Amino acid sequence: MPTFTQLTDLDREAMLQTIGVGSIEDLFADVPADARFPRLDLPPALSEVEVQRHVGRLAARNVTVRDWPCFLGAGAYNHASPSVVSHVMGMPQLATAYTPYQPEVSQGTLQAMFEFQSLVCDLLGMEAANASVYDGASAAGEAVLMAQRITRRERVVLSGALNPQWREVIQSYVAARGVEVATSEVALGASGALVADQVAGLVDARTACVVVMQPDAFGRVHDLAPVAAAAREAGALLVVATADPTCYALLRTPGAWGADIAVAEGQPLGLPLQFGGPWAGLMACKSRHLRQLPGRIAGQTTDHDGRRGWVLTLQAREQHIRREKATSNICTSQTLLAIGVSAYLSLLGPEGLREVARQSRAYAAYAAAEIAARTAFRVATPAPFYNELLILGPVGGEAARHHLVERQILGGVPARSLDGAYPDGLLLAFTEMNNREEIDALVQALAEVGA
Q1: Within this chain, do residues 329 and 356 fall inside the same structural domain, yes or no?
Q2: In this structure, are residues 388 and 215 in contact, taking their beta carbons and an 8 Å threshold?
Q3: 10 Å Cβ neighbour count for 68?
C-alpha cells in the first residue's frame, strides 16, 4: 500500500540548507546526547487506508447513545437535533468565521449574535442576554462574579441541590478572591423522598447572590418565591441556573420568578453530546445590570440611510479595554454553537419546544410510576419533577448501573460519582428520544436487581 507523508528527503534537505544546518543531528546539537532521539519502539508506519481501517475497528468497540437506550443526564441530555442544525453549523461562512475585531464589517456574525440573544431572552424570560459563554457551569461562575461587582459583597449562597460540578466551577471562579461560600444541605425526609433545602435561611445582609437550580440536580421543580423574597429583602441578587432549558416550554421562566441573572446550558437545545463539549453557555440578566454582563453583546440599529444593521454594543473584555476594567477574561463566545442553538429554537418554535418538554416530562412520570410499582427501588425525587429522577434501592447506584449496562442499557449516573451524596442513588434522565418500550426494559432490568 502507498504511504503518504508530508515531507520528502529533498524537502528536508532544502529546509536544512535554508537555515544553515548540515544535518538533522546538527539541528539538535545543543540537546544532551542521552536525551536525543529516544527509541519509541513504534511499529512500522501504516498507510492512510490502513490507519482508517484500524481506527474504524477501534471506534466500533464504543457504544453510543445511538446504539443502546440512553437514560443519562446529570447535566448532559440526549435530546434530538434536527439534521438542519448540523447543516447550518457546517456552512463554511459560519464554521470558518473568526472574531470580528472590526465588528461592523461582519454584519452576518453580528446578526447571528443578536438573533441568539433575542431567543435566549425569550426562552429565559429576561431583558438582556450576551452572545454566549463557554458552557452552563462557567456561566454560573460568571454570574457569581457579576453579582459581586454589582453588590460589592463577598458572600455567596449556593443551593445544595445545584449540580455539584457547577458548584465546583463556581468555587474555582471565586477561590482566589477570599469569597465566603455557604451551601445549603439536601436531605432525605421520613418518607425517603428528598426534602427542600433551606437555602433561603442562609441569605443575609452580607450576601451578594443566591444561586439555585431549576429544576435542581435531582430533577425537582421548586417554588422559587421564598428564596426570591429572601434575596430581595437582603438586597442580594437571585441567580437561577438551568441544566436543561427545554423545561421552560412548560415551567415559569427565571424572569417570571424575578431572577436578576439567569444562566443555562445550551447543549440540550440542538447540540450533540460531543463527549462532553464544546457547548454554549446561556447568560441573561435584567437590563439594569447590562453593563456588568460579561462577554459580547450585539445590538440592532440603522445606518445613515435608514437600513437595518448590527453593531457590537458592548465588548467589555480585556482585549478591548484595560484589564482591570474588564468584566471577565472571556476571550471568545461560542458563536458557532450559539448559531446551532438559534437554528434549533427557530426550527422548533414554541409549539415544537413545548412538545419536546411534554414528552420528556411524560416519560419521566411514566418511569417513576413503573419503578415504584414494579421494582425494589424507590423514587427519591418528589413531585413535581421535570425529566430527571433520583432512585434508591437494594444496591448502590454503581452496581445498578453495571447491571443495566449488562442488559445493554445506558442506565443513568451514580450519585456517588457526582459529589458523594446518596452513594446508593442512581440518577435517571428521560427525553423525547426515549419511548415506552425502552422504559419498560429499564424497569424490567431494575426489577431483576431486587429479585
Answers
A1: no
A2: yes
A3: 16
pTM of the model: 0.88
Q: Is residue 9 part of a domain?
A: no
Q: Is-contact 297 290, C-beta < 8 A?
A: yes
- Can you give the CATH number for the domain in which 214 is found? 3.40.640.10
Q: Are residues 338 and 358 in the same domain?
A: no
Q: How many domains does the chain have?
A: 2
Give the number of C-alpha atoms closer than 13 A to the C-alpha of residue 186, restricted to the C-beta side. Answer: 23
For residue 58, being part of any structural domain is answered with no
Q: Residue 36 — pLDDT band, cuts 50, 70, 90?
A: confident
Q: Give the residue numbers spanning the domain of 328.
A: 83-345
385: helix, coil or strand? strand
Q: Tens digits of per-residue pLDDT, 148-185?
A: 999 999 999 999 999 999 999 999 999 988 899 999 98
Residue with cell 429576561: 126
What stretches of 281-415 show up as alpha helix (H) in DSSP?
335-374, 397-406
Grid coordinates given for 386: 421535570
Provide the pLDDT for residue 1: 43
